[in-house]
Amino acid sequence: MTSTDELIPVSHIRQFLFCPRIPWFKQVMSFEPPEQGWVSQGKRWHASQNPRHKRRLNQYIKGPSKHEVDVYVCSRSLGVHGYIDELISNGDQGVVIEYKVDKNKPTLAQKLQLMAYAIGVEESLYLKVAAAVLLKGDARKQYPVDLSSELRLALFKVVAELRKTTSIHRMPASSATEAKCDQCEYLRYCNDR
Ligand code: SF4
């Protein structure tokens, strides 16, 4: 990757796995629906949760650490960039934290998102990632994600597929279920639904 313009938002990876048309609408058609209420709600929610979990997350790294929210990272090798919900760092190591309002076990998409942020931390902030954690529901439940070589490989494959999909002008096929389409903000653009 050479220019920042070519970097894909990390959030598009998760959206691509939900339905390949979503990043296609965004990147190829430049359709960007207004931010929905629940997104704003989620942001406010995670900001309000910060003091509650701080101490528990410090277990992953030693020494004095700082907590920052909405931290920008990018990965040139992967060609992605984005803002991490929260990053704890001690100068050498970092802990990547992502907040999710659902209470379910981590999905593949959520794990890949964390992996992408972890690679971004290593490449752009020069920190070794000691842990990547999903905080779900009311933030009482922590899900550490195993940043394995298999997950890394899976991520590179998905990003390659995403790039292929958004490099052509034909709207991609989608196997999204009716339940997915019913909650999708792009429904009015899909004339076959
Ligand atoms: S409405 Fe359905 S097919 Fe269209 S983008 Fe949304 S999830 Fe995909």
UniProtKB/TrEMBL annotation:
Task: Tell me its EC number(s), please.
Answer: 3.1.12.1
Q: Which residues form the DUF83 domain?
A: 10-190
Keywords from the UniProt entry:
Antiviral defense, Exonuclease, Hydrolase, Iron, Iron-sulfur, Manganese, Metal-binding, Nuclease
EC primary class: hydrolase
**Does the UniProt entry include the keyword Nuclease?**
yes
Q: Explain the purpose of this protein.
A: CRISPR (clustered regularly interspaced short palindromic repeat) is an adaptive immune system that provides protection against mobile genetic elements (viruses, transposable elements and conjugative plasmids). CRISPR clusters contain sequences complementary to antecedent mobile elements and target invading nucleic acids. CRISPR clusters are transcribed and processed into CRISPR RNA (crRNA).
Q: What is this protein called?
A: CRISPR-associated exonuclease Cas4
Give the source species. Marinospirillum alkalitolerans
- Name the gene behind this protein: cas4
